[in-house]
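pinning this so it doesn't scroll away 📌
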Amino acid sequence: MPAADRVALVDARFVGHRHALRLALTDPRFDSAAVPGALTVKPAARPALAQALAGLTADGTTAVPGAGAAGRNRQATALAAAPDAPSGTAHGTLAGTAPAAGVLPDAAATLLDAQGARPHRPELGVLVATVPADADARAAAEAAVSAVDEEAVRLRSAVKSRDGFFTTYCISPYSRYVARWCARRGLTPNQVTTASLVVALIAAGCAATGTRGGFVAAGVLLLASFVLDCTDGQLARYSLQYSTLGAWLDATFDRAKEYAFYAGLAMGAARDGDDVWALALGAMVLQTCRHVVDFAFNEANHDATGNTSPTAALSDRLDGVGWTVWVRRMIVLPIGERWALIAVLTAVTTPRITFVVLLIGCALAACYTTAGRVLRSLTRRANRTERAAQALADLADSGPLAEAVARVTRPFAARLPAFAPPLVALASGGLIAATAALAPAGSWWVVAAAAVYVVTSGLAVARPLTGPLDWLVPPFFRAAEYGTLLALAAVCQVNEALPAAFGLVAAVAYHHYDTVYRIRGGTGAPPRALVRAAGGHEGRALLVAVLAAALAHHTGFTVALTVLAVALALLVLTESIRFWVSAHLGGAPAVHDETGEPA
């Protein structure tokens, strides 16, 4: 076989469900995968497979030069007794039947384990995958295959294993059938993702009309968009069409849909004479900061050792009480509950009420999740790795000014206590945001606060972010930058300044989300040249403070914010699209399915 091709070994005596073979042979997320009687490897694992096959004879025993049949049989018995050898019901072999002797794919999979190229072994559950040893075992296996509704199992497995209450009980029971309909017509998850974006943008356009009929249509279309948003992931799991590009599109479009709808509501309210752009921008800032808290905490503890705490243990015990699981998932206001809330309020109330309720709900959810994570961080004894520290540094988005300050202040920062970085970030971020909100329009005190912010933000990242609460540094920086923009645009009272600020925050937030998705995909953060060109969070805060002081009393401030938003959007979007498309075309490994807390 050509070296660039994927290959599979399947025992001719295999009996099982088609979907069991599909899980082993067609899932693009893993370099190698196996079920009893079948093994597949992608090009990256081909050398390991060749090495394993070189040590096996055609009947699945180990080939040792000069060894007789007795020696080969002894080594085959050792393979079958290996701890990781597929057997029993855990990997789909039929209970009560012994696997057939000399199953070459199973022996090769065991040798791959021994070489460190461990194949992925999908959890088959009630699906059957076995190589029967005799006619009776074959008959039993065939009867077991017939007794299972394979399509029902496949549909159940298409639904995300961990999701919110609204999604689980109000969307997934029928969206899985939409996913199957799409699969049977050859539609791809990326096409469904794009359709979801289009529907959401139409919903935003309906909301922008400012009419009651438009608001009702917007609510209905937003829910339809969410159904498609669930369908694309279920289609990917149903048909095993995972891809790095698809994961990026799904995550990026989720944010674009929600924030475009905020803008549509604000435009619709303006048509009725109600200016809610500050509330719309506040909702986007709060939601983005919530996500940064989630991302930073997870990355800080991604591969930490000794990562236990009494708080985490209590959470695990509560998970054993059924009703508490759903209550805790609803409290955090995940995407399903949040979009349902927005859709219903849009249809039956006003944009102002929608944003006020949304802000209150998101603020309570943010307090709940952040407090729990702070308690976990204070009570656990976790040793964070260099990878985690680098991820937090990348999420901090420090520009050239903060980098220069960090180099100068590194000896001093090394002597500060463990909780200094988040405290410094909180104090300096609070200073610039509060000054921007309380100072009169055009005040140069905001520029002075921004200069202090530049120095202190460099001090906060001058040493590796490995402290127990250092994961709070990126969220504090995001709140400082976004909050300062919101405050300056609101205080200046310049026409259209708030919509321009909304666009600028959206462009910057996209850059920060893109950084997260690259880190999650294992591809690293965006190039440092891009981060420096974008100015870093401290450089942008200083620039906007200078613009506000110089232009706050006329429309030049709106023009400056608009130009800055367009320039940043073009910069980050061009590099992001180039990176993800080239990664997709270059055969980057497919991103693993997300099963954590819903966004």
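📌 and the second one:
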Amino acid sequence: MEGQYDLWLVVLSYAVALLAAYTALDLIGRASPADGWRRVVCVAGGVLALGCGVWAMHFIGMIAFHLPIRVAYDLSITALSMGFALLAALPVALLAARQRVSWREAALGGLLSGLGISAMHYVGMAAMKMSPPIEYDIWWVILSTLVAALASMAAIRLGVRLTRSRAAHRLWWRLSGAAMMALAISGMHYTSMAAAHFQPDAICTAHSFLDDETLLAISTGLLAFLLLGLTLLAPLFSVIVPKADAEHMVVLRRWHVLLLGGVLVLAMVGGSCVLLHAIYQVSMSGVEREAQLVEQLYAQVRAGPVVAPVDRQLSMLTASLEERRREGAILLGLGSAFFTVVVLLCVGVLGAVWRLQRGAQVLGEQRKRLTREIEEREAVSDALRQANAALQIGMQAMRRRNVEVTLLRDLGRMLDCCRSFDEAKDVIANHMPELFPGGAGQLYVNRANGGTLGLEAWWGDDAGQGEDIESDDCWALRLGQPHWRGTDNHPARCRHHAMRAHHETLCVPMTAQGRTLGLLTVWAPQPDRGQWLTEPERQLAQSAVEQISLALANLQLRETLRLQSVSDPLTGLYNRRYLDECMQRELARARRGGYPLGLAMIDIDHFKQYNDRYGHEAGDAVLVALARCLRQLGRAEDIVCRFGGEEFTALLPNVSRDGALAWAERLMEEVRALKVSWQDSPLGRITVSVGLAWCPDGALPPEVFIEFADQALYAAKHAGRDRLCWATDVLAG
């Protein structure tokens, strides 16, 4: 026996499955583990929505399959199939309402639910009581069961996702999940229908008023009322028990209930009345009309002779009517109970709406008070954040100042330990990048002429390319105070910053003891950076300049004192004290390096005559002329000293014996060629006597070495002056 599908009823079955899946996912997604009895209510609503939806979709799909015979459904077996539908929805709702579900648990729950859905389907088909029975293809049955299990598993996973997802994403998950679940449920049903084979001579033996039209009305009416009630009561429940963290949603939910509460009451009460009237018309009125027809037949039979087959058929028809009357009474009682539940539910809805309206003003006042408190707390919080930010900035500035003080202390301590200006330059070049990280700068020091400043130290990129500058090139030197220039087009830019027209610059003059020693200049690392040298940084630069100025002044003072202690004020040559210091040092170097060392003792011949004849000033002029000749003749490493009176000493490092002899002979020739005048009067010919001592390896003690040269000098003077003698010759003689 072949059947045909009604396309509109197929579409209706899918729409029913879609509505049931959406409602079930909505209710399950509202379940929270922390709510207790509210979770139970949501799970129970999900079970009812999903179970009734699957049951209604199943019978609408069966009604869509038209057979060429009359089809009816046994009431008790049909009710049993609804029980299987509710049992099948139970594991799905219980697992989907949890926060976490493993794949093994989801698979097991899906399998149990799939078996329940399959049992509901095949029990519902058994309610037809076909004779001969329906035959099933085992492979299609297995496939339909697998489809039901997969649909249940997908419902579990979607419910878990909705329970954990944010409210902003739940609508899309519900829509997509409901569409997928509805497609799977419909696919399971029509796969199961493909497994059924009806015999060509099969008939339906079920004696019930549950025919196709009645069952369709009951299925769609029950599902519509149930799903509509659950969908509208869910937001009402959220309004009655609002969440503490969703106070702003109360107004939206209140308007939702106020707008839809009336629709709920009218739809459910009116629909229940219509459904109850339809049940009465089908069950009670139809049975009464058939009972009247049977009474008329009985009257006709009693009026004439009774035929045994007719009497037997009338008895069977009477028994069938009695059975249908009992089923109709049961169904009418169920419809009345359903109507009573709907009325009570509507009364509860009206009470909740009244309670909501009563508390609307209180909620509004509480909301306003909470809003004011929140605004006040936010204002206090903003003030605290601002104070905290200011405190953090102050702490950062304090930490930076502490670091700067430490760096300045280290700079001053290092400069105090310097023994020369070269060491001081290295210290400044190494410490300034730490004081001004990322920037660049230069240190200029006054030259001896007083009008030019030479570049002595620098740090940063391109800072070593500068040249000497004039005092008029810098505004800081002109003004005698620090000169800062930002990145604006201020006209007072120093000429030595001409290549840095878009850099922020700072020039600080170095002064100490009332005189200008030099200039320190600093500039920003990048052009057009904005203000980089803030007021604290400019004060830091001035403090660093004070440290540097004091250190350089002390170095210059120490150098001046040292030169005065080791030099002769008349000739500018080193004195006897410096010779004693250098003698030990040079002899030690000669011993370490294994090179020779020469020593020449020089005495001006007849020097007393210049003093007696021309005066002491003339004698000083002779001494100065000889000192100048010695400086011009000597090498850079030679050490020339005034030994005392008219005697001079020349220490010649790393010189051979012949080299010392040549140096002495050349000296004597240069002295003979000197032309010295005093007050426009020539002082006559000047000659010197020279005593030479030579040590090949620096093994002699200093006093012995000087003694040898001194004895050679005395030997030259006794030999007639204007000559030189070797210490070895004197010692050998």
